[in-house]
Design brief:
The chain is mainly beta. It has 2 domains: about 25-180, Galactose-binding domain-like (Jelly Rolls); about 200-340, Galactose-binding domain-like (Jelly Rolls). Helices cover about 10% and strands about 40% of the residues. It is built from 2 helices and 25 strands. The strands form 4 sheets. Strands 1, 2, 4, 5, 7, 10, 11 and 13 form an 8-stranded antiparallel sheet that branches. Strands 14, 16, 17, 19, 22, 23 and 25 form a 7-stranded antiparallel sheet that branches. The chain has a 5-stranded antiparallel sheet with strand order 3-6-12-8-9, with no helix packed on it. The longest helix has 19 residues, at about 340-355. It starts with a helix and ends with a helix.
Length: about 350
């Protein structure tokens, strides 16, 4: 490879972010509109017949389809029909038109059913691989995207398996599938707003928001982590927009940093709020911020720099005070190259260009 080709490769890598349009994969009757729902009391049907979807029940719980104003909701996301999973009910179908080896993302509109009951939930399983959890945060239809999966053949089995041994339910509609668009970002959803939340809403272990990039530890006693909106018991404001992550006790929030350049130094910027709870920050196994607390107001601070040892490394915000139930709020997370290194790289590239363009004696 010539010097000019090497230089061009470096310039493209350093300055260009490639854009791509996701290819959608058709899903027959993706919105359940082709399923007949009788006009009767309740406007819904348990375990209807469909050439595209299979509805079953387990342990006395069920799945089905409703329309318009029903015992389950007030209408679909964009049409009258919508599906529901109650307790341990189950919905299955075959996804087709896939290309082996390609990565795909499944999305769906979700909402809670009527009333103030806790939401039901279901594991989202593709060919035996759990790619997330479906559940309704509130009574508004909201779109959620689940973890990508890699196709092993031209078809895949989608299995939505209800996991709650109770009568609680959630609603789903407008199921869609697309090829995964690879991002050049190091971190996604630093402001915790990839999936919109209604003000006042919060939830532990919000891992079903996989389109949001973050994973949250389970609630155990006074420890746990989750996602919250302004006006919730966790806080009246966010650093940006209307949502933030919370870490209670020894809970933790993680995300895999991607597209790192091995040997490049990076810094983690984030906003933290709480004056008693302490957190530690890790990049991989390296502690880049020792246990410390913040102030009662949102403030931005930068952690110690870390050097990438792999193209992917885990970023972890770890709570320390596991016995007291105190909490830290996290928002505005960004992972950026060390400014000095970027400047030196730019200067080096400019110097090489000048040398390349200089006339020969």
């Amino acid at each position: 490879m010539t010097v000019m080709k090497r230089l061009t490769s470096i310039l493209v890598f350093a300055t260009v972010i490639a854009s791509a349009t996701a290819t959608s994969i058709p899903i027959s009757d993706h919105s359940f509109e082709q399923i007949s729902v009788p006009d009767s009391a309740g406007n819904f049907v348990f375990m209807p017949s469909s050439p595209n979807w299979t509805f079953t029940g387990r342990d006395g719980r069920a799945s089905g389809v409703a329309k318009n104003q029903s015992s389950w909701g007030s209408g679909g996301a964009f049409g009258p029909n919508y599906a529901f999973i109650q307790g341990t009910g189950r919905i299955q179908r075959t996804l087709s038109g896939l290309t082996p080896g390609k990565s795909y993302e499944l999305s769906s509109y979700l909402r809670r059913n009527f009333g103030n009951l806790p939401e039901g939930r279901a594991n989202v399983i593709v060919n035996g691989q759990n790619i997330g959890v479906m559940r309704g945060y509130d009574t508004n239809w909201r779109s959620y995207t689940f973890r990508p999966f890699v196709a092993t053949s031209t078809t895949a089995l989608l299995d939505l398996v209800g996991s709650e041994d109770n009568e609680y339910a959630f609603l789903l509609d407008e199921v869609s599938l697309r090829e995964e668009v690879k991002s050049s970002k190091v971190i996604e959803n630093g402001n915790f707003n990839a999936q919109p939340l209604q003000n006042g809403v919060w939830n532990y272990e919000a891992n079903f928001l996989t389109g949001g990039g973050w994973s949250y530890s389970r609630q155990t006693g006074n420890s746990g982590a989750g996602l919250a909106a302004v006006g919730s018991p966790w806080g009246s404001s966010a650093f940006s927009d209307n949502a933030f992550g919370f870490i209670q006790g020894g809970g933790f929030i993680t995300q895999v940093m991607k597209n790192l350049v091995i040997g490049q130094r990076y810094a983690v910027d984030f906003a933290q709020r709480n004056q008693t709870h302490r957190i530690r920050v890790f990049a991989g196994d390296l502690e880049i911020l020792a246990a410390d607390s913040s102030s009662g107001d949102w403030r931005v601070r930068r952690t110690a720099f870390f050097t990438a040892t792999s193209s992917e490394m885990m970023l972890r915000f770890q709570g320390v005070d596991s016995g007291r139930g105190d909490t830290s709020l996290i928002d505005g997370v960004a992972v950026v190259p060390e400014p000095g290194t970027v400047a030196i790289l730019g200067l080096g590239l400019a110097t090489l260009l000048r040398k390349r363009k200089a006339p020969q004696a």
